[in-house]
């Protein structure tokens, strides 16, 4: 055989072999959804803004320049917690108010212009947590409208079906997530969607999450442990934790339990072959700063070591990486988040 044709044969054999291997890897691992999760990369929550109750302010206004600042600081994505239920009619056809939709349109367009990927969720649907049976149709109707409205948006937009299912909703969540996902899939057949476990998206509750056979799912968890440390002095938590002050963090035991909890999530994800998004973590401003930074650094490092994308809780309020009054980043927090 002529050496050139021998070489061609060899190349052909190698290519066939490599393609076969690649195909089997791809079959085992829906690589696109892993890439989509990597594209979320490092993010921040735009907390306290569209998640505040109707016409109330939780002290935050997100302006266009903030999205540009988030991108310039090195973030890849933002998560937008959104209280749709306060802007949706109580009866069929459960219409979302156009004026509120226009606010969301604007935020999405601004984030996209800033080249940020965006996670849009349903947040604080309290009636659904308290009385799931009475709210299933409304929950589905909300998703139908959101999904239809944004169906032509590019791959930069991700839908998260529901933030932190809790209370009575825990028992219904596996059923409702399928209903919400079907409503989305009717107009967005392949858009990456994000779902987490019941019980406040706690890592321990991953074992209770039942995922439908949809390849374009990213799984999310939240991490605020230990609560006594991350939520000390916060006005919205139980008395016992609200009254705590000057609680430090960082003993060998605490480090070990943080690593164990994060590893538990990573192991679950590996076994299920799903990518993981740490959609919320943060320590409130009342906690001592040096411990806040230590805890935050450890979470970011560990999340990245396990290949998780993440979103810090949150941009400009009580956990804020950004000081809205001074119009500048809190450098120690920012540097802890964006480590290289
Ligand atoms: C809630 C916020 C709260 C944060 C930290 C989020 O899931 O929506 O209101 O500030 O958790 O507790």
Describe the structure using short key phrases.
disordered N terminus, eight-stranded parallel barrel, two-stranded antiparallel sheet, binds beta-D-glucopyranose, 340 residues, globular, alpha/beta, single chain
Protein model, in words:
With 340 residues, the chain is α/β, with parallel strands linked by helices. The chain contains 13 helices and ten strands. It has an eight-stranded parallel β-barrel with strand order 1-2-3-4-5-6-7-8, surrounded by four helices. Strands 9-10 form a two-stranded antiparallel ribbon. Helix 11 packs parallel to helix 12 and helix 12 (289-305) runs parallel beside helix 13 (331-337). The termini are far apart. Residues 1-28 have low confidence and may be disordered. Residues 51, 81, 123, 163-164, 280, 313 line the site of beta-D-glucopyranose (BGC).
Strands of the widest sheet, in order across it, are 1-2-3-4-5-6-7-8
Question: If you compute it from the alpha carbons, what radius of gyration comes out, rounded to the nearest whole angstrom?
Answer: 22 Å
The coarse overall form would be globular
Poorly predicted ranges (pLDDT <50, ≥5 residues)? 1-28
